[in-house]
Each structure stands twice: as structure tokens, then as C-alpha cells.
Write a structure and sequence with these properties.
Strand content of chain A: under 5%
Number of strands of chain A: 2
Oligomer: heterotrimer
Number of helices of chain C: 11
Largest interface: A-B, 39 and 41 residues
Shape of chain C: globular
Shape of chain A: globular
Mean pLDDT of chain A: 90
Order of helices and strands of chain C: EHEEHEHEHHHEHEHEEHEEEHEHE
Strand content of chain C: 25-35%
Radius of gyration of chain C: 25 Å
Helix content of chain C: 25-40%
CATH architecture of the largest domain in chain C: 3-Layer(aba) Sandwich
Chains: A mainly alpha (262), B mainly alpha (265), C alpha/beta (335)
Radius of gyration of chain A: 19 Å
CATH topology of the largest domain in chain C: Rossmann fold
Number of helices of chain A: 12
């Protein structure tokens, strides 16, 4: 409860900071939206001559893309400090301050800054999902809604866990590590049915960096592709496992930091 | 304008990059990932089809791969660096130097690109060559013209970044703008999908914009699809846009610098 | 009662040598040369509850490393630390609730938000009750004149203003121990005085134990009865300020000014064997002596009685000079 109230306060503070320059904030929302529109533009250009991708209709791909954006949007809101963790916290020494407060250090790092404009991605993704849901006349029961919520949480958790693990590398490497960009680009893999990839990449996306569990597998249930139902059932398991791994790795990193300093 | 100080800036950029060594190891992986994603998408799209538009599958993979390979060369972060200079206040010290700020940045970018050529472009090209079936340039003639086109590729990209970076004088945070530019350039330069693949109106508009010079034009030259008159037009367009964008940057910077000196940043 | 116990603590780091230049940079890509540095070497001391202790040393002497170990940020390579009943690095969560820390170079307040919002956030983080919060703010305002600053974003504060806010933030949750790393660095005389007054008062009224590091020895002279001196990782001195003076204050000097210009015959004063005289210019003369051998009152009396002087100035050795002396000798002194 205490953490939740602090989180609320952090968030309120950050909104205030951003709204101190309203014009700036509007521009960042607008440019962020432009990026999202561009990515849909890409999908449109790619498919305006071809109507399906290995048996997946354009609308179905749109659904996967939209669901991906819902999770990714929320993740982007929360992940702002993770990318700059090595530089902002370890190299500039802000992590000392974090260590001096009686709160979980990861909690502080994640919730000290938010990329608020990324709510736009969440909203756009949701609009796309609703549109396809309606267009393809997919069934909609209360259970589906609950599952959709659960899948969203799992998706965000998977992204956060993966990138927390990558951030922990900054505890050990003095270089400004560029490990996140290739992994971030791999999120794009998850936006398409895994069946288009070869076995190696399918394995990678499922069990090593489980982005397929954060976007493709969750959608198969809603798209009535029941051949993937066992993967769908595993989504919460994968999310929980990676979260635990990330937390373990983080506390190891903190211990490493305590013995070496910055 | 003397050239020596700019060479010094290029050298410093070179050294700075050396310090970020890990980025180059991981950078190669990033580009492999990018090429792989598009390889599989195109493979799925080409299934059961001989060609799409004017491209065969093999040509498309060559297009995408070489596109990412040359991106390792022309890419730079001067937009971010200029924004940092301005937002963190380093700009005052830099403006007192007896050099042109725009050319200083372009020189630094050139130093960076020169470094990338050896540390990044070559290894990435080798890695991609091992995994994906690429085609050689259409002819020696095309290969030489392709290399020449890369100069415009670099100049247009650098000049655009300079313009975007300078916007930081008027904004408090520039990350959103940089992201938007990033997506815009990715699509309109033809990096992800050849411009000839675009819906007609968009393709027509893109042919008059500078972005195609970054990726689409050199790639079409590489594949021998731009020859003769079209080649000449491309070079003239490249020269024209370079002059316009650098000139625009010069003008914009002078305006911005006045604001900086009057209001103290 | 000891509230901090440091026993035989050492801290070793590994650093990497980097080569310069283009070729060196390329070599750095493939190879790094590790080297071990002893930042703190076998340091022991205790601090009693309510004490205010000055911890001094040159840059890189090991001050910050010690503070970081005392606050639980770093784990000692060997030796043990207990503070406030906890092992700082191990019991970090409980321990940090009872301490306050100020790093003079860095603020712990949130940069873009108003000071009071930072305080509100800290109030929640440390579970400070509304009443305590209000009371503390009143106390701080009385000494630090905080109210006019509360609604300003931290980035718009001057260094002195920011430091006042940072101090308040460190004391907000009524910590038992406060660590101050260079709290007066870069401040002007007035701001320094402000902060010293605050520390004196809060130390006296609330019985807070304070450990402070500083470059500015006048901080120590005004605030601390006891000093610890560290150099190159070794503790060189641990004792009272008077003890330090007594031990090292060898040379004092008197400068006196004559009424009329002229050559002075120092032999008439009768201190030839113990005092070193020197005529600085036509009007001013200097006498350098050891306080243990010569009482300054006697010497001044002799000067005033025998010579026509307008002015006499006694100049004691400053702590700064003593510290410099200690560093150059590298002598270990403990109480």
C-alpha cells in the first residue's frame, strides 16, 4: 500500500513536471503519435499489394500489431529510466541516492520518470484492437475481457523483465552498454505470426527472449487460432518466470554495486 | 574557411566512438536482427510469387540488406548531440570557438562515419553476407556510382539531423521530435520498403523529397535500376537537396544562435 | 555510548588503465589492464551518540569511500561496521530509515519539482506523520528560512538555497545519525554561516550524531570537537581539536609595526636564543617562536616595553597548516 501511494505521488509529480511546459508536451504527444501512424503506414504499404501473410489476413496482423502496441505503450511509459540506467544512475552516481532510501531500488528507478506521451500508443493500440474485434466479428464474453486484461499485464511484465535484466548489465560493465537496442528491435519480430520464421528464431522468441509471449501468442486466443492454445496457456507462466529472474538478477547487481561502487 | 580545425573535430569524434566499443559489437547484432525481420516478412510475402513490383525475392533481400549495411555508414546522432549542447548549456563554450558550428558538427559526423566504415559497416556487411544471399552490384559502373551516391546519403542525413537538433533551441525536450524524424526517415527514405512499392500518390510525393537520397537512390543505383539519364537526375537531385538543406541549416542556426545569445539559452 | 563502531575496515577497488590516442583506443577495444587500489586501509574508530565529528582529508584520501561504507552504499572489503545497531550494507532498508545523508555535490531532491513536493515525497517514503512533518518544517524554517524557497523548483535555486533545502530533507524524518559530505562546498560566507548555525542547533537540541567531511577547516573549527584525519586510505589522527593543536602547533608568529621607520636592534628584547626575528620592511617586523618554549604574553610585553610600536598581531598556526604538516609527515597519531 505504501508503495502504491508513493507510486501515485511519483506519477502526479511527473505529470506536473511535464505540464510545466505544455507546448513541449503537446509536441511530444504529436510526434509520438506521428511515429505510431508511421508504423501503421508501414504495415499498410507492405500489404496494399498483398492481402495475406502465410494465411494470416491483414486484419489479423493488425490485431497482433494493435495488441502489441497496447503492451508496448504501457511498457514505454514505464521504461524511460531503464535505457538510461547505466548512464544516469551508475555513471552519474544517482544510484547512491537510491540506495539511501528505504524503498526497493528498482521501484525507485522505474517510477522516477515516465514517458507519458506513450499512453498515446496504448490508446491507439486499443482502438485498433477494438476495430478488428468488431470488423472480424470476434466473440466477446466477460471472460475474454478478463483474459485480455491479464494478457496485457503479462505482456508488459515480460517487456519490463527483459529490459530490467539488460539494465542490470550496467552494474558490471563500465561501458555505456548498447545491449538494449538489438533486443528492442527484436520486439518487431513479435508483431508477426511466429510461423513465418525459421526454427531458430521461433525458439529464440519463445524461450530466450520471449517476445512472442508478449504479443503473438496472447492474440491467438482472441483470433480463434486454437492450434496455439498451449502457448497461450503458458503466457502467465513465462511472464512470472521472467519477472522472478529479473528481480534476482537485479538484487545481484545491487550487491555487485555495493562491492565495487561506481 | 580553413579545414584544419574540422579535421581535428573529426579526429575527436573518432576517439570518442572508440570509447563506446561495446556499442559496435551489439550494433552488428542489431542490424542482423533488423535484416532478419524483413527477410522473413518478405519471404512470407513472396511465397508462391515470382516477383512483386519490379523486384524478385532475391533482389528484395539484397535491397533490404544493403540498405541496412549503408545505414551503418551514413547514420549519426548529431541531432541528439546538438540538442544536448543546447539543453545542457555546453553551447556557450562551443560558440566561442572560431569555427562554424554547423560545419563542426558535420565534420564530427564525418569522423564518426569514417570510423563506422571500418568498425561497423565492414563487419556488419560480412555478417550479413554469411547469412543472407546477397547480389553483387549490377556492374562496376553501378558500383562506382553507388559509392558516389553515398556521399549525398551522408550529407542529406547529416544536414537533416542538424536541422532537427537546432530545434532544441525552441523546445525543452527534443526526444519526441527525434523519434518522429526517425520513423519518417525509415519509411520515406525507402529503407524498409522500396519507394516504387508505395501507393502511387505517396510514391510520387516521395520522389520529390530529400529522404529518398538517403537510402532508395543509392540502392537503386547499386542494383542497376537507375542508369543513364535517371542516374544523372539522381545526382543533380542529390546535389540540389544537399545545398538546400545545408543552406537551410545555416540560416536556421543563425536565427537560433541569435535567440541563444539574446536570451542566454 | 557508541552509535557508530568502525573496526579495521578496508576497501579495495579494481580500476582499469586506459591507453590514450587513436592506437591506444584501438588497443583498449581488446585489452584492459586491471589494477588494485586501496581506497581505505585498516581504519578503526567509534563515534558516540550526539557527537559531531569532522572527517577530513585531501581529495581521493578515502573520505567519500568511508562515508559510502557508513551509509550502506558500499560493502567493506574487510573489517566490520555497526551503526545505530545495524550493519549498514546488510540491513539497508531498516538502517536508512534512521539516517540522513547530504552529498554536497549532488542534490537528493527531485530536480524539476518544487521543493515542498520533494519533501512530501520524502515524507511518504520515510513514513513521516503529518504532525512530525509540520513540526520539522517549522524548526527548519526558523533557522534556515525555508518558507520562501518551498514553492520553487530545485533547478531554480542557488547553490546555497539548494543546500539549505537538502539539509532540511536529510533531517526531515528525524534521523539519529546524519552524514554530510562536503555540505559547505562552493558556498559563500553567509550561506556557510547559516548552515553551521543550523547544524549546531540541531545537534544540540535533537542530539543527532553528525559525521561531516569537508575541505573547509573552518567548518571543523566551528562545529566539531573531534576530528579524524585520513590520508591515502590511512587514518592519521583521531582526537580533539585542542589535542591536534597542542601536538602540532609548534610555530606561532607575531608581526609588529613600528611608529617610526628605522632599524631595530632585536638583541635588546632578550629572546635571542628562542625567537627568530626578522625585519620585513622599514616599519614591520616579524617574530617566529615555539609556544612551548616562549609564552606569547611575555614576548608581546617585551616588544611593547622596549620598542615604540603602533600595532601587534599574534598569528596562531591554523588547522589548515597543521593538516598540511601532518600530510607531509605522514605520521599516525591516535588518541
Amino acid at each position: 500500500m505504501r508503495h502504491l501511494s508513493i507510486l501515485g505521488y511519483y506519477f502526479a509529480q511527473y505529470i506536473k513536471v511535464r505540464l510545466a511546459y505544455p507546448g513541449d508536451f503537446l509536441i511530444s504527444v504529436f510526434t509520438s503519435l506521428a511515429g505510431t501512424v508511421a508504423s501503421f503506414g508501414f504495415l499498410y504499404i507492405l500489404f496494399h499489394r498483398v492481402s495475406s501473410l502465410q494465411g494470416w489476413a491483414f486484419e489479423e496482423l493488425l490485431f497482433i500489431y494493435g495488441f502489441n502496441l497496447v503492451c508496448l505503450g504501457l511498457f514505454n511509459v514505464l521504461s524511460m529510466n531503464l535505457y538510461e540506467f547505466g548512464e544516469r544512475y551508475i555513471m552519474e552516481g544517482r544510484f547512491d541516492q537510491i540506495m539511501l532510501r528505504p524503498l526497493h531500488s528498482l521501484f525507485q528507478v522505474i517510477f522516477e520518470a515516465f514517458r507519458i506521451e506513450s499512453f498515446q500508443e496504448f490508446a491507439t493500440g486499443l482502438v485498433v484492437v477494438v476495430y478488428v474485434w468488431h470488423k472480424l466479428d470476434l466473440p466477446l464474453t466477460p471472460l475474454d475481457l478478463v483474459l485480455f486484461l491479464l494478457m496485457t499485464i503479462c505482456g508488459v511484465t515480460i517487456y519490463l523483465s527483459v529490459f530490467v535484466m539488460l539494465s542490470t548489465l550496467s552494474f558490471w560493465f563500465e561501458d555505456r552498454v548498447g545491449v538494449s537496442p538489438p533486443v528492442f528491435n527484436m520486439i518487431a519480430f513479435g508483431r508477426y505470426p511466429v510461423t513465418i520464421y525459421n526454427v531458430f528464431i521461433q525458439f529464440l522468441l519463445s524461450w530466450i527472449i520471449p517476445f512472442a509471449f508478449a504479443s503473438f501468442y496472447p492474440t491467438t486466443y482472441f483470433l480463434q487460432r486454437h492450434e496455439f492454445s498451449s502457448f497461450f496457456a503458458l503466457v502467465p507462466v513465462v511472464a512470472a518466470t521472467f519477472l522472478v529472474l529479473a528481480l534476482i538478477l537485479w538484487s545481484r547487481g545491487v550487491r555487485g554495486y555495493q562491492s565495487t561502487g561506481s | 574557411m580553413t579545414v584544419t580545425p574540422y579535421i581535428a573535430f573529426a579526429r575527436i569524434a573518432f576517439l570518442k566512438i572508440l570509447a563506446y566499443r561495446l556499442r559496435y559489437y551489439t550494433g552488428i547484432v542489431t542490424y542482423m536482427v533488423n535484416v532478419s525481420v524483413y527477410y522473413f516478412i518478405w519471404k512470407a510475402l513472396y511465397r508462391g510469387k515470382e516477383s512483386l513490383g519490379e523486384f524478385t525475392f532475391e533482389e528484395m533481400i539484397t535491397y533490404v540488406s544493403v540498405g541496412f549495411i549503408i545505414r551503418t555508414f551514413y547514420f549519426n546522432n548529431i541531432d541528439r548531440e546538438i540538442a544536448n549542447d543546447i539543453l545542457l548549456g555546453h553551447i556557450a563554450a562551443k560558440m566561442t570557438r572560431p569555427v562554424n558550428y554547423q560545419w563542426m558538427n558535420i565534420a564530427q559526423a564525418a569522423g564518426e562515419s569514417f570510423f563506422r566504415l571500418f568498425m561497423f559497416t565492414v563487419p556488419t556487411a560480412l555478417a550479413i553476407l554469411v547469412v543472407f544471399p546477397l547480389r553483387a552490384p549490377a556492374s562496376l559502373h553501378s558500383a562506382l556510382a553507388f559509392l558516389a551516391a553515398l556521399v549525398f546519403s551522408f550529407m542529406v542525413f547529416a544536414a537533416l539531423n542538424f536541422l532537427v537538433g537546432t530545434c532544441a533551441v525552441y523546445l525543452h525536450s527534443i526526444l519526441g521530435l527525434i523519434r518522429a524524424k526517425y520513423f519518417l526517415v525509415e519509411i520515406l527514405s525507402g529503407l524498409l520498403i522500396p519507394i516504387s512499392f508505395f501507393p502511387e500518390t505517396l510514391a510520387e510525393i516521395s520522389r520529390w523529397l530529400p529522404f529518398q537520397l538517403i537510402s532508395f537512390t543509392p540502392l537503386m543505383i547499386y542494383m542497376g535500376k537507375f542508369q543513364g539519364e535517371q542516374l544523372v537526375t539522381s545526382f543533380l537531385l542529390g546535389l540540389g537537396w544537399t545545398l538546400v538543406l545545408v543552406g537551410l541549416g545555416h540560416w536556421f542556426w543563425r536565427k537560433a544562435a541569435t535567440k541563444l545569445t539574446v536570451q542566454g539559452g | 555510548m557508541a552509535v557508530i563502531e568502525v573496526s579495521r575496515v578496508s576497501k579495495r577497488f579494481k580500476t582499469y588503465d586506459r591507453k590514450e590516442g587513436v592506437w591506444g583506443g584501438i588497443q583498449n577495444l581488446f585489452r584492459r589492464n586491471p589494477r588494485e587500489v586501496k581506497a581505505v586501509d585498516d581504519v578503526s574508530f567509534t563515534v558516540d551518540a550526539g557527537e559531531m565529528v569532522g572527517y577530513i582529508g585531501a581529495n581521493g584520501a578515502g573520505k567519500s569511500t568511508t562515508i559510502k561504507m557508513l551509509t550502506g552504499i558500499l560493502v567493506p572489503s574487510s573489517g566490520s561496521i555497526r551503526a545505530n545497531g545495524y550493519v549498514p550494507y546488510r540491513d539497508r532498508h531498516q538502517y536508512t530509515r534512521g539516517i540522513g545523508v547530504v552529498f554536497g555535490q549532488r542534490t537528493q531532491l527531485w530536480w524539476d519539482i518544487a521543493v515542498v513536493e520533494s519533501f512530501q515525497l520524502l515524507k511518504r517514503i520515510y513514513d513521516v506523520s503529518d504532525r512530525t512533518f509540520e513540526e520539522q518544517l517549522e524548526v527548519f524554517d526558523a533557522v534556515l528560512n525555508l518558507k520562501p524557497l518551498l514553492y520553487t523548483p530545485v533547478r531554480k535555486l542557488s547553490l546555497g538555497e539548494r543546500m539549505r533545502c537538502d539539509l532540511a530533507a536529510a533531517f526531515l524524518h528525524r534521523p539519529r545519525i546524519v552524514f554530510l559530505d562536503e555540505p559547505t562546498i562552493g558556498l559563500d560566507v553567509v550561506a556557510k554561516e547559516n548552515i553551521r548555525q543550523f547544524l549546531k542547533r540541531i545537534n544540540a537540541e535533537l542530539q543527532v550524531t553528525v559525521v561531516l567531511t569537508t575541505h573547509d577547516l573552518s567548518d571543523i573549527e566551528e562545529l566539531c570537537r573531534r576530528v579524524l584525519i585520513i590520508d591515502r586510505g590511512h587514518l592519521l589522527f583521531d582526537g580533539s581539536l585542542e589535542g591536534l593543536r597542542e601536538r602540532f602547533e609548534c610555530k606561532s608568529q607575531i608581526v609588529f609595526e613600528l611608529r617610526e621607520p628605522g632599524q631595530v636592534d632585536f638583541g635588546r628584547l632578550g629572546f635571542n636564543s628562542t625567537v627568530e626575528f626578522q625585519q620585513l620592511d622599514a616599519l614591520r617586523c616579524q617574530a617566529v617562536f615555539d609556544k612551548k618554549q616562549v609564552a606569547s604574553a611575555e614576548l608581546i610585553k617585551a616588544i611593547v616595553n622596549s620598542l615604540a610600536v603602533r600595532d601587534v598581531m599574534l598569528d596562531d598556526t591554523t588547522i589548515e597548516e597543521i593538516v598540511r604538516e601532518i600530510y607531509s609527515r605522514g605520521e599516525v597519531v591516535t588518541r
